[in-house]
Structures are given as C-alpha cells and as structure tokens.
Design goal:
Chain A: Keywords: Membrane, Transmembrane, Transmembrane helix. The structure holds 2 protein chains of 2 kinds. By secondary structure, chain A is an alpha+beta fold. Chain A has 10 helices and 13 strands. Classes of the chains: A alpha+beta, B alpha+beta.
Chain lengths: 353, 1163
C-alpha cells in the first residue's frame, strides 16, 4: 500500500473543514418546553380574551340598522312592476319607514345591500375590460372578448362593457328625517368619497381625447343593455362624477366576495344642516327609493343599511366573539396542559428509557 | 464450440485492413447521452416521460380552453418551466462530466505494436486485432487475448509477437465468466477460454509487462456490455410518495366531482335565473354540460394539491445530503486519501431505515493482513500488550530487529522479553521458531542477496514464517528434499523427509526433518483440540498453562495454532516410512490409509507452545458493529472463508461473544440434514420461553456454511431458515458464493420487507451490492469493481456508523419532515378554493390572485422548507452516535407513513377551513374605518393569502428544529418577498402598463392598512397554530421520542456524559473453553512440494486444488440455480494466486490475496 502523506498536500482530497460542509453551522435549536409553551398559552389566551372584550365593547357602541325594502312598505308594487318585463323601464318610486332608537353618533354611512346576488361567479368577474375602464381609447372601441356577450350592441361597442357593468345596481335613495315636531328634513349625503382612492384615481379613468367633452369621447359606443342612461350622464348633479369615474359605478365594479354584501352609497353630510352635526338623531325616518333594480332574477333581497364606524370599522360582532371564544379555549387548553404536565408529564424527561 | 457464421468474430492479429472489413467497433467509448444539438429535444422528451410532467402539460392544455380556463396559463407554465429547467441543468451537468470522463479514458495512452514497433497510441485509436503491451499497474485498454507475459525472469523480444494468427470467437456479449474461441496459428488450432482473456477495466498486477491481442474493443468489451442499464433503485419513501400522489389524484377527482355536482345543482336552481345578468356560454345549453366544464375547471384550480415541485425539491434535498456525505471529513480516510462518496444521489433517506447489513469479511471487516501477535512458549506468554499505551509509545516499544540483516522491516512485535529469550539461547524458544521456519509450505524467493520474498499460500502461514525470520530463524530456500534455514546467522540445511499435509479434517500439518547432526524430528502445528489429544502424557501441566493462554487468545479473537514436536529414532522413522510408502502405493482407500499412517506418527508429541495470529481487523470494526447492533441493525457476515475463520472473525469483532447462549452451526450436506439441523436449532430460538427475562438473556448466533445454505435457500426451506436466522443476534454464512450472497440478500428483502444494505469491497460482492437496497463499496487498496457497482463508497468499514447513524438518520428525518410539511402546505393552500366553491356558485372562481397561485409554491414557501430539508438536525451528530437507539424510528418507518400523511392532510384541511372561515366570518360584515365595506373579493383574496403565508411560515418555523442563518434568511426572506411582491404586483406602475393583467392595483395598501384585516390574520394564525402547538406539547410531554429526550437533556444540562455501550470494553472472557483455531489453508501443497514436479505453482494448478475441495457442492448449486447474478468473480480465481509463479494477475479490478476465499469462487 502506498503510504501517501495525505492531509495537507495540494493533491489531498480531504474535504474543507468549513462549518457549512461539516454541518456545524451555528444554529439555534428551540424546543417546546413547558417553560416556554405554557406561559405562551396563558399569554396568548389572555391577550385574545382581552382583545375580544375590548373589541366587543367597541362594537357595542356602533349603531347599525338594516332595512329590507325588497317588498316592504310601498315597494311591493314596484317589485311586481319590475317582475313584469313589459313595465321594466317604467319609473317606480316607493318608500319605507323606519325609526332609529338611539342617536347615530358622528359619521353615518348609508349602504345598499344585496342578498343572494353572486358577484363572485368566475365568468361574471372575468366579464370586464380594465383596459377600457382605465381610459384606453383603443379598448374603448374594442372591448375585450371577456366582455361577451356584453361587448357589442348590434356591432356598436358597449362602454363600459361586460356583465358586471351591465348589471350595475341602479336604485337610488333619498333619506328623510321626520322630526317629532313635524315636517320632513331631507338627510344630505355625500355621494363621492365612497370609493378607494386608488380606484378613483388610478384604476378608473375616463378616456381623454383633446378638446372633446365626455359625451363626444363616448361617441360611437353604446350604453350597457340594462342601463337607462349612458355612462357620461350617471350623475347629473356633479359633472366630475361621470363616466368611468362615477363613484357608484366604481363601487359596483369592485366585486363582492360573497353573495350577500353591502356597498357604500353615501356618507352623511354633517356640515350642511345643524341637526345632523352630531350624526343622525333618534326618531322616525323614511327612505324613498327609486326602484329600478329587479330583485326576482336572483331571488334575493335588497337592503338599506345605516351604520356608524369606530376605529376599526363598522358593526362586526363576529370578530370580538371569535377572539373571546378563542382566548377562552386557549386558556382552558393551557390549564389542561398544565395539569397534564404536572400530574402525568415529566416522566419522559429522565434519560433512562 | 461453433458459432453461427454470421455471428462469429474473426480477428487477425496485426492486420488492420483485414479486420476493417468487419467494421468492428473501435475502442472509443461514449457513455454520454447528449450533445449540444440533441440535448434539448432528447432531454425534454425524457422529462415528459415522467407522469407528473405530462400531467402538468395536460393541465396547461386544459387551461388554454377558454370555457374551462379558471386560471391563466402562466400559473402552470412558470412552475413547469422552472422544474424542467432545474432538471435539465442537472442532467446537463451530469452529462458534461460523462463527456469529460469519456474524453479522459479515450485519450489514455497505450503502447500498440504497429508494424513491429511499439508506438504510443490513444486508447480510442486502438483497433480490434492490434497487439498492445501492458505494464504493471496499467489499466487494460480493451478485452485482450493474453499472448505472453514477462515476469521476473522471462523476456520475450517484441519481434516474436509479430504473429499472424487468427482468432475466431463468439460475438460480443455481457457474460464476464465466459469466453469461447479458437486461435489458428501456424496451422495449429488452440482453443481459447476465459482464462486466456484480460478484460478491459482490469489492472495488471504483479507482472512487469504483457502483450495482448485486442479481441473486443470499446462498446463491445465485456465491461461496457455490462455497464448498460443499471437497475434503478428506488427508496421506500419514493414508492410511498408515488402511491400518495396517486391517492391525491384520486382525491382531486373526488373534489372535482363534488364541486361539479354542486355546480349542476346551483346552475339548475339559481344560475338559470341569474342568466339575465350572466348568460351561459353559447356552448353551454344545460346545467349538466356546465357541470362537466366546472369539473375540468376545478381540476385546474385544485391541481396544486398535486405538488409539481415535489419531485424536484426531493431531488434537490437528496443532492444536498449527498454533498454532505462527500464533504464529511470524518468519513475521509487520511491514509488512502479517499473521501466518502455518494455515488447515487437518490437513496439517502433510506440510509436512515436500514435493518439488515450484509457484510463481506475479507477486506471489509478485516484488512486481510495477518500479524504474529502473541505466543506462548513452554508456558510462558509473550507479547502481552500493555493496555493504554498510546500510538507513539507503541512505536517506541517496537522491537529492534537490526541484529538480523534478513529481518522483514514491516514486522512489528512489542515484547522485548521474547527477543531476550532468543538471545539468551533458551532451547525451547529456539525450537519454537525452528518449527515455524520448517513446518510450512511457503516458497521463498531471493531477488538479491538478503532480500527475501515469501510466497505463502495463506497469509497465516506467511505471518508465522515471517515471525520466525525476524526472530532469527530465517527460512531461505527449499528444494523438494531440503529446507535451508539461517539459524541466528548460521545457515543450516535440513533434509525434508516427509510433509504430512494439512487438511480440514486433520486440522494440522507436520514435517519430518533430519537435522545436519542426523537427528530426526517431527514438527507439527495445528488445532489445539486435536493436538492436545496427541501429546505425551508428561505434558499435562504445560498443557494446562498453554490452554489458559489459548483461551485468552481465543477470547481476543486471535487465531491460534499449537506447536509440538516429536523426536524420532532412526528405527521409528524407517518403520513408519515403509508404512507411508505402502499407503501411498495402495490401490484403494489411499487417502484413508495415508491418514491412518499420519495419525500413527503424530503421537506422543512434546508441546512447544502456541501462536496467536491476529487477522487484522479494519480500524474500529468491533466498535462499529457493537454500535450498529445497538441501533437494532442486524449484521450478517457473508464470506467465502472457511467456517473456523469466519467464526473467529465473528468473535474478534464481537459479533459472537462467549456470553451467547448458543452458537448454532449448520453444516449439513444434504437437504435432510440441513432441514433437521434447522428444525432442531429453531426450537430453542424461535420459541424462547414466554418469560420475558429468558428471551432477553437468550442470545443466539447462527453459522451456516455454503453447502448447507444451498439447501436452506430452496423454496420450501427458505422461510424456515429465515425465521431461525432472524431470531439470532448474529448470522455468519461462510463458504458462500457470490451468487449465494445475492440470494441471501434477496431472501431477506423478499420476506422481511426491511431495508437491506450490503457492504463489500471485492468483485465477489458486486452481486450482493447490486441486489441490496443500498450497496456500499469499500474502496480498499485495490479494487474499484465493488465501488463501481455501489451506491456509496468509502474506505473504512467504520464509516458505516456515520453513514447510517448520522447521515442516514438525518436524511430520513429531514425527508420526512419535508414531505409532511410539503403536503400540508399544499392542502392548506388549495382546499380554500373548495370551501369558496360553496359561496361562488361552484363557478371555479379562485380565492387568490393568479400571481399568488403561480408563486406560492415556487417562491413564497419553497425555500424555507428546502432549507429545513437540507439543514435540519434534531440532535447533534455526537448524540446519534452515543444513543444508537435514535436510529429506530427510521427502521420502523415512523416519521412518514400513511398515517402521518393523513395527519398532515388533516392539518392542511383544518388550516384551509380556518383560513377560509375566519376571513369569511369577519370580512363579510366588516367595513373599514373609512366606512368602505371589506367584503370585496380582492380584499378577501389578499387577506386569505396573507394569512396563509403567515400561517405556513409560522408552521415551518415550528417544524424547523435547527435554525441556521440560512433558515433565518429563507424564512424571513420568504415573508419579506411575499410582501414585496404583493406590493409590486398591486402597484400603479405595473397596472398602467398591463391593466388587464394586474387588476389588483392598490389592493395591498388599501387592505393591509385596515386594522380589521390584521386582527383577522392574527386570529386565523392563532387558531391554526395553537392546536398544533398543544398537540406537539402533549406528545412531547406524554410520549416523548428518544430524540426529544436527548435533545432536551442536552439543552438543559450540557454535561451529562453518555454511557458508552458497556459491551465494548469488556473482553468476553467467560468460562467456556473455545478453540481459537482458524487457519486459512488448503490441502495439497505438501504433495506438490515433495513431488518436486513443479516448484513454481502455476495459477492453474492452484485453481485445480482449490476446486477439488468444493466442486461437488457447488455443482449441486449450479444445477439448481440459474447463474444470472454471477459477475466477474471468475477472474479472481484466475488471478488470485498469481503470487507464487509466472502468470499475470489480471485482477478483475479487484485483486487481493483472498487466499481463503479461493474455494468459493470456482464456478
């Protein structure tokens, strides 16, 4: 046998003595010990319970009222009218009365809600052309094939195209306060500021053609089948709230994840009238609806929701309850673990096995 | 032998023109698969033969159909391309190295005889019919017909080689042990057999040079014909993984069907009304067709349960583990400058599951070096080693033999008193060594004055004669009738009157010599049991003392021989000589008569003493074996050696101990006797009394010899044999053929469902190495044949403990943790779609952004789990060696099995439920602090995705037991990359360029600024993680694994010295008396020497001797079993004993002095 002197010579094949290659990298090996796990459980449990309680108290202060107006009040007739195809485009107004037991403090938000309306169907969600909505003139006249069958109306490109835009919610609401002293006070609402800033300013843009006004820009496009007015006339009161950047439109285009949802309609204007400076006073109210959106096709319900918010949002009883329950369960588990650890455990800890 | 004319091969020496007519392959070999042009198509074609890849291709095609495309095409193509390219890069690297090695081999130089002159030629230019010259230690370039060889004394001028003979032989084939052909030369016909061949890949040994005619070249050589398609080994995890993937496919289809049914119902009940808002596709005319499309859509979005990156990740992890094996300095052998090598990168985790090790003996457990270690002369023991002496002290104590100019420099002995006794002239000590120098069959060769080379037929004998030589009794030369010895510088010539040869029954040999003074003396050496019976009664006291010494030696696993002499008077000698003469002439029962004659004279001998030879074990063998058995690994030794030798080694490496209840020896020659023996043995072993204590104390061992094994492996007995063998703590199979080695492995593989590992170093182990689940090749001093066939190779048996207990264990652990987590994370990710299906009208709407789906598996969650799979350690390496029991979970398959899989899946599904329900519960009602509802799809998608990434990151953090900087980097990096990519994907810039692709614009900032969203994520994380934590803690508390205990014990109190397995230090010195006799010696040499016919034993002669011994039972074996597995061991035979004489030693890559294995290689 050749007695090679190996080890350091240049032809030595000895592997490097690096921590990496020898698997001796400095490392932290945590392990689940009673000293770490049990306190962790107690702390987490406690934190959850406390957080839950805090949230619960916060949520208690939030007022919310939901009014189902599908067929209630005088809307019965409108519902019937919308069910009948012949009278689908006939205007119909109705109103529903309700009362607030307590004052709605501070900012009050008005929502409309739909129950059992599936905005989350795959083909429904695909049926839009963001290129068109961001104001690309090429897409304006050439809507994406995803919009089919709501892309063309007898060869005229539809703007905005697609099933989502086509099915846009088009009821409108007027809320009236009926003070105990008599009379009717119309509750003023801001109709802008209800969409995300990014949506309003980035995602949705009107097509711009130099020296042309909005109606001219949209020349050569058709309005969606179910719409009663073209996109550039959605808000007659505010010329800057028309076209693709109409906030009702933007709100509608942000599809809901679940079949029952609510969308923001307006924010109480507390400046314009002194009576609403601190929110909505308790009392009787009536909401007048211009009833356009047919409800029988999705066998659902339509709601009006009034709500206040706190630092973490609107009325949401699930979160605090879930926290309290989770925290409670964790505390119980922690106690069980402690008992098990003290009574039965430890045995496995000695080395002799 | 006649060949079909078309098939036969005609080769004319030195006639290239003639040979070219046949267009034989030239000697250029190509093992590479691709070249630059063919790489892409061929590699892609190969990759798409993988079911998984084809499946994803199929998915891709599905996604291109707009009606069912629920996901963009890139969600599949990006991972697919990534996976394909990683594999392609790996294949390309492999092939590059193959190209390189091909080049290197093809460009080796060889000397070719061209027009009478030796010229240097590259290997690839060597043609069939060329005559090439080989020198010592050179590789054989092609399959050669050996023409002539030059050893020490012969010299053949090259001109003589200008023969113009012609060879007609069989066409190329892969039978290594066969060659048929005829040589026509000068009108003479010579038949050629395998003996005449030198095969490519062999190394020329012990021969200065030789000439050979190229018969087969390049791809036609036997080596290349054999190197074809090696059987691809798969690990049990691999097989389990494939099954699980199939199950997952099934699961996927079930989910698809459920959701499709849901779709049908929904479309019928709700969707048909909703048509005014969303009409059905033109192609869809009823809800059933819609359901059919929904099925495929769901197959697309749920495809992530079948993880595309699983296979490639597993490969990457295994590759990493293989590198760790290659890099391990503690598996590097300084002396031979060889690091360990993982030759197969796909078996690592199986190293952590080994239950049976099949080991060769010679060269694997032992070094095949015999050393004269101790002796007992006239009741005085010499050579007791003082324990505790360090290596350098030992060097200092080493005896100085400089007084003796003929001494062998390599000989070591450490007891000065023996040398003193010699110098003082103690007569018995002199007689002792005189015996050793006279009573043997060693040949000596004196190259130059004083430079003696002994050619011993067995290494034991060589060691004894060398010992005598160093102590001043130098055996110098012999003739048929004389032996010349240099006794303390004085040449003395004894006349050799008779050699009473050794055989297995006699277990002794004697010589009768007449000293120059005329005294006749019989010298005898042999097994203690036999010699003690034949001593003169006056030796009783000495015998007792010697026998005590022998017991000590035997307990140390030394091979012992007892030496004795007898003075014969002239009369006695003459009487006996006459008797011997008549016995030799006897027409019948010659052997019996001879034996009787021998018996007669070997009586009333005077005891001289005993020798103890150490069959040098490889370093650390007993410790390794002890450790491995503590790890519940059963070690079977399969050796070609004789039973005594094998048992002896069994003792010296502590496989057998004197504490054992019983060592069964099965030695029967017939089916009946073997069966009976087996039955008889299995009685106590298989049914140990039900008492637990008894079964613990009852340790059994089984020794079975090859001829019995041939019967035991019969179909009707193998079960019985296996059952008995498995009850035994140690199993030793001796005198087994390579084929039997493979059969034994196969037997265990078949019936025990256990992972087997075969370790060996020689060509005779190849079949076993290839058969076992894992083959380990010991890259000894010589052979590479075993290494070439192996999956792992290193140079010391003891590295096996590191390979299994450290690397194997970690690999298994890491792979299991990796798989558990991998399935978990994919289920947690994918099943959310399923729950969402119930809310979105089963329309196959995904929950997540498609970019998230694309990147989840390849960016957000791949690296942390890879880092865990590569670097994780539960306990430090020293601990797994200190607590071999830590190895057990792997053997029992505890860490990843179907049960664990279902637990992972259940955890994944639970997580998906939480990840869906908590955000659903919260967000469906919630509004942000600005009053804007949070129930929109995009907010929901981002919330769920973020929760998912956080939950699986926390989970991997829990699973990671060993946080290196890399783990930190990957885990934090993955989280960081998630948020970075999220914000990038939702940025204005990307949207303004591709508004239709990145419609989540602004979503990240709007969603993640809401406190409710973070409260939701936190709640989901807590609900997902807390149960896991609780269960783990409970498990740790109530049913801790040994690894947990070890880990905790050492993190708590750093110092707690481990108890080393107690069995190691103790010498098994029990009361039972055991003979340490073992002698690797063959019968027949005495006769050869005295006959004087052939003082230079040809290898052929040796082969005959060897085969005579064992041919009969091998024949029976041959008849019964088809010899498929037989690999190149035939060549060993032809070459093993080149030692004493002329011929070439064309080892088939591996040649060692496996003298003792000789008998078993004759096939």
């Amino acid at each position: 046998m050749g007695k090679k002197v190996a080890g350091s010579g240049p032809c030595s094949r000895i592997p490097d003595n690096s921590a990496f290659k020898q698997q001796r990298l400095p490392a932290w090996s945590p392990s689940l010990t009673a000293e770490t796990v049990l306190p962790f459980f107690y702390i987490i449990g406690l934190v959850c319970v406390l957080l839950g309680v805090a949230l619960f108290l916060t949520v208690q202060k939030i007022q919310e009222i939901q009014v189902d107006y599908t067929t209630s009040g005088t809307c019965d007739a409108c519902f019937e009218m919308r069910s009948n195809k012949m009278s689908a485009s006939v205007k119909c107004r109705c109103s529903v009365d309700f009362s607030l037991k307590e004052n709605f403090q501070e900012d009050v938000f008005l929502y409309y809600g739909l129950v059992n309306f599936h905005q989350n169907l795959r083909r429904y969600m695909d049926s839009r052309d963001d290129g068109q909505l961001v104001g690309r003139t090429t897409n304006l006249k050439n809507p994406s094939t995803y919009c089919e069958p709501f892309a063309y109306n007898n060869g005229t490109p539809i703007a905005p195209c697609g099933a989502i835009a086509n099915s846009m919610f088009n009821d409108s609401f007027t809320l009236k306060y009926l003070p105990p002293t008599g009379g009717v006070v119309i509750v003023p609402f801001y109709r802008t500021g209800i969409a995300w800033y990014t949506d309003k300013n980035v995602k949705f843009r009107n097509p711009q053609i130099e020296n042309e006004l909005l109606p001219q820009v949209f020349q050569g496009t058709a309005q969606p089948f179910y719409w009663q007015k073209p996109v550039y006339e959605l808000d007659p009161s505010d010329p800057n709230n028309n076209g693709f950047i109409n906030e009702d439109f933007i709100v509608w285009m942000r599809e809901a994840a679940f079949p029952s949802f609510k969308k923001l309609y307006g924010i109480l204007n507390r400046q314009s009238k002194a009576i609403f400076e601190h929110g909505l006073p308790a009392g009787n109210y009536s909401v007048t609806i211009s009833y356009n959106f047919p409800a029988q096709y999705f066998q659902g319900k339509k709601l009006v929701v009034l709500s206040t918010v706190s630092w973490f949002g609107g009325k949401n009883i699930f979160l605090p309850i879930a926290y309290i329950v989770t925290g409670g369960v964790i505390l119980v588990v922690a106690v069980v673990l402690t008992v098990v650890y003290i009574k039965i455990g430890k045995k496995g800890l000695n080395m002799e096995e | 032998v006649s060949f079909c004319r078309k098939e036969e091969r005609r080769v004319r020496a030195n006639d290239r023109e003639y040979n070219e007519k046949f267009q034989y392959a030239n000697n250029c070999i190509m093992t590479s698969k691709y070249n630059i042009i063919t790489f892409l198509p061929v590699n892609l074609f190969e990759q798409f033969q993988e079911v998984a890849n084809t499946y994803f291709l199929f998915l891709l095609i599905l996604q291109l159909i707009p009606q069912i495309s629920s996901l963009s095409w890139f969600t599949t193509i990006v991972p697919l391309v990534l996976v394909l390219s990683i594999t392609a890069v790996k294949d390309a690297t492999d092939d590059y190295f193959r190209h390189k090695s091909d080049n290197q081999v093809n460009n080796r130089q060889s000397q070719v005889l061209i027009s009478g002159i030796l010229q240097k030629e590259k290997w690839m230019n060597v043609r069939v019919g060329d005559i090439i010259k080989l020198e010592n230690n050179q590789f054989v370039a092609a399959d050669l017909l050996l023409l002539s060889s030059k050893n020490i004394c012969t010299h053949i001028p090259s001109a003589h080689l200008m023969i113009l003979g012609e060879v007609i032989c069989e066409p190329p084939n892969n039978k290594l042990d066969r060659f048929c052909g005829t040589l026509y030369w000068r009108e003479n016909k010579y038949s050629l057999s395998n003996q005449n061949m030198l095969l490519r890949g062999c190394v020329l040994r012990n021969t200065e040079s030789c000439y050979g005619l190229v018969i087969f070249a390049g791809p036609d050589t036997k080596l290349m014909q054999n190197s074809g398609r090696t059987k691809f080994k798969r690990t049990s995890i691999d097989r389990l993984m494939n099954t699980l993937v199939l199950w997952i496919f099934g699961f996927l289809v079930c989910m698809g069907v459920i959701l499709a049914i849901g779709n049908a119902v929904w479309e019928k009940e709700v969707g048909s009304l909703f048509q005014s808002y969303l009409p059905w596709d033109p192609s869809v005319d009823n809800f059933l067709f819609s359901a059919f499309l929904a099925f495929w859509s769901y197959v697309i979005i749920l495809n992530t349960v079948v993880p595309i990156s699983l296979y490639v990740s597993v490969e990457v992890i295994r590759l990493g583990h293989s590198y760790f094996i290659n890099w391990d300095r503690r598996m590097f052998c300084q002396r031979c400058n060889t690091p360990a090598e993982a030759r197969t990168t796909t078996l690592n985790e199986e190293l952590g599951q080994v239950e049976y090790i099949f080991s060769d003996k010679t060269g694997t457990l032992t070094q095949n070096i015999m050393t004269f270690n101790k002796c007992s002369i006239n009741g005085h023991a010499y050579g007791e080693e003082e324990s505790g002496t360090s290596l350098c002290e030992k060097e200092f104590l080493r005896l100085d033999f400089s007084f003796n100019s003929l001494a062998d420099k390599d000989f070591c002995f450490y007891d000065q008193s023996l040398l003193d006794a010699i110098k003082l002239g103690e007569p018995l000590v002199h007689e002792f060594f005189r015996l050793l120098s006279l009573c043997h069959t060693v040949m000596s060769e004196e190259k130059s004055e004083g430079e003696l080379v002994y050619k011993a037929q067995s290494p034991d004998e060589g060691a004894l004669v060398t010992a005598a030589r160093n102590f001043g009794f130098v055996f110098r030369s012999r003739t048929p009738n004389t032996i010349t010895v240099q006794e303390l510088g004085r040449p003395v010539t004894y006349s050799l009157l008779a050699i009473l040869d050794f055989n297995n029954i006699r277990k002794r040999m004697s010589v009768v010599v007449r000293s120059p003074e005329g005294k006749i003396r019989l010298y005898c050496k042999g097994a203690d049991t036999l010699l003690f019976e034949r001593l003169h009664p006056c030796n009783q006291d000495l015998m007792n003392v010697t026998s005590d010494h022998l017991n000590e030696y035997a307990a140390d696993g030394l091979r012992t021989l007892v030496l004795a002499y007898r003075d014969l008077s002239e009369q006695q000698w003459e009487d006996w000589a006459a008797q011997l003469h008549s016995a030799e002439r006897a027409p019948d029962y010659r052997e019996d008569r001879l034996a009787a004659a021998y018996e007669e004279i070997e009586q009333d001998m005077m005891l001289l003493g005993a020798t103890a030879i150490e069959d040098k074990l490889q370093e650390g063998v007993p410790e390794t074996i002890a450790l491995l058995s503590l790890a519940n690994i059963k070690i079977w030794v399969l050796t070609g050696d004789k039973q005594e030798t094998a048992v002896n080694i069994g003792y010296s490496c502590k496989m057998l101990t004197d504490d054992m209840t019983e060592v069964f020896i099965i030695n029967g020659h017939t089916v009946q006797s073997v069966r009976e023996e087996l039955r008889q043995k299995s009685m106590p072993a298989a049914h140990p009394s039900s008492n637990l204590l008894d079964s613990i104390s009852g340790e059994y061992a089984l020794v079975i010899s090859g001829h019995s094994l041939a019967h035991a492996l019969e179909a009707d007995m193998e079960r019985e044999f296996l059952d008995t063998a498995c009850v035994c703590k140690a199993v030793i199979c001796c005198r087994v053929t390579p084929l039997q080695k493979a059969l034994v492995v196969e037997l265990v593989k078949k019936h025990k469902k256990a992972v087997t590992l075969a370790v060996g170093d020689g060509a005779n182990d190849v079949s076993m190495i290839k058969t076992a689940h894992i083959g380990v090749g010991i890259s000894g001093q010589e052979g590479i044949q075993a290494v070439l066939a192996s999956d792992y190779s290193f140079s010391q048996f003891r590295f096996l403990q590191r390979l299994l207990l450290v690397h194997g264990r970690w690999s298994y652990l890491r792979m299991c943790r990796f798989l558990c987590y991998f399935f978990y994370k994919n289920f947690a990710f994918t099943m959310v779609h399923f729950w969402f299906g119930f809310f979105c009208g089963f329309s196959a709407q995904t929950v997540y952004d498609q970019y998230f789906i694309t990147l989840y598996n390849i960016v957000y969650t791949s690296l942390p789990v890879l880092a865990m799979g590569i670097f994780d350690q539960d306990v430090p390496e020293q601990r797994s060696l200190e607590y071999p029991k830590l190895y057990e979970p792997g053997q029992l398959n505890l860490l990843f099995n179907k049960r664990e899989f279902f637990i992972c899946i259940a955890q994944g599904i639970y997580t998906s439920v939480v990840l869906f329900c908590v955000p659903y519960g919260v967000l469906s009602q919630a509004t942000g602090s600005d009053g804007i509802p949070l129930a929109d799809y995009q907010t929901f998608a981002v919330t769920v995705a973020t929760s998912l990434v956080i939950v699986v990151s926390v989970q991997i953090a829990l699973d990671t037991g060993y946080w290196t900087a890399i783990n930190h980097f990957f885990i934090w990096g993955s989280l960081g990359s998630y948020f970075t990519i999220l914000f990038a994907m939702h940025s204005n810039i990307l949207f303004s360029i591709f508004p239709n692709q990145f419609h989540f614009v602004g979503n990240a900032q709007n969603t993640l600024q809401q406190p409710v969203v973070w409260l939701t994520i936190a709640l989901a994380t807590v609900i997902c993680i807390v149960p896991v934590l609780a269960f783990r803690f409970l498990k740790l508390d109530l049913k801790p694994q040994l690894s947990d205990t070890v880990r905790r014990a050492f993190t708590k109190t750093q110092i707690r010295r481990s108890r080393r397995p107690g069995a190691l230090g103790r010498l098994g010195r029990a009361g039972s008396r055991r003979s340490g006799y073992a002698f690797a010696h063959q019968e027949g040499f005495g006769e050869l020497i005295t006959s004087g016919k052939n003082m230079r034993l040809s290898s052929l002669a040796l082969a005959t001797f060897a085969s005579r011994h064992s041919a009969s039972w091998i024949d029976t074996l041959r008849k019964k079993k088809v010899l498929q597995l037989v690999q190149g061991f035939k060549h060993l035979l032809a070459t093993l004993y080149s030692g004493s004489g002329s011929l070439v030693s064309a080892s088939f890559l591996a040649v060692k002095n496996k003298g003792s294995d000789l008998g078993s290689f004759v096939i």
